[in-house]
Specification:
Length: 189
C-alpha cells in the first residue's frame, strides 16, 4: 500500500510541475563566429508557451574547450510585435549543468518568436538569431484530472470489492467452524 501511495504522490508532483529544467533540450542553432562555437538549446521540446529554458554553450572552436568568462544575453520577441521583448541574462546560476549558461522565461503566448543570443567574450559581441515556433501550453493537471483519475477510481473500487469479499469469506469460514461438532477423540490425545 505504501508503494501505491508513493507512486501516486510522485506522479502527482510530476504532473503538477510547471518548470522547464533543460540544460540541454533540443539544439536550436549552433554556429561559429570569430573562433568561438556557440550552441543554443531550448526546452521543452517542442517549444511551448509557458516556462522555457534557453541554454547556451560557449566553446573555443579550435579546441572545443568551454569559455569560462563570457556574458550571454538572450531575448525573445514575438513576431507580431504585440508584446515587448523578453530579456534575460543567461547565467551559470540558472543552469543545472555548469558548463551551460541558462536563461529562464515564461512565454505568455504561442506563436512565432525571434530568439536572439548575444555573447560578449574578449570585448567582442557575437550575435545569433533564430526564429522559433512555440506551440500552445500543455493543459494543467487540474484540467485533466478526470482522465488521470478514473483509473485510480477503478482501482480503488476493485480494492474495496476485494476487501469486502475477503471479509465475507473469513466470516463464513469462522461461522462454519463454530457449527462443526467438537471431536471427542482429539481431546483424549
Amino acid at each position: 500500500m505504501n508503494r501505491l501511495v508513493l507512486t501516486t504522490v510522485i506522479c502527482f508532483i510530476i504532473m503538477h510541475s510547471r518548470f522547464a529544467v533543460a540544460d540541454g533540450g533540443a539544439v536550436l542553432t549552433t554556429g561559429v563566429q570569430d573562433g568561438y562555437r556557440i550552441t543554443v538549446l531550448t526546452s521543452p521540446t517542442p517549444l511551448r508557451a509557458g516556462p522555457v529554458d534557453v541554454s547556451v554553450l560557449v566553446q573555443h572552436d579550435d579546441t572545443g574547450k568551454i569559455v569560462a568568462i563570457a556574458d550571454v544575453e538572450v531575448s525573445l520577441r514575438p513576431s507580431d510585435k504585440s508584446q515587448p521583448p523578453l530579456r534575460a541574462l543567461a547565467t551559470r546560476a540558472n543552469a543545472t549543468n555548469k558548463l551551460f549558461r541558462a536563461a529562464l522565461f515564461t512565454l505568455p503566448q504561442p506563436g512565432r518568436w525571434r530568439l536572439s543570443t548575444v555573447v560578449t567574450v574578449d570585448h567582442r559581441q557575437l550575435v545569433f538569431v533564430a526564429d522559433v515556433e512555440a506551440s500552445t501550453e500543455l493543459p494543467r493537471f487540474s484540467d485533466l484530472w478526470i482522465w488521470a483519475g478514473w483509473p485510480a477510481l477503478a482501482i480503488g473500487l476493485f480494492a474495496a470489492h476485494r476487501r469486502l469479499v475477503h471479509r465475507a469469506e473469513r466470516r463464513h469460514f469462522h461461522e462454519s467452524c463454530r457449527r462443526c461438532p467438537a471431536r471427542p477423540d482429539s481431546a483424549k490425545d
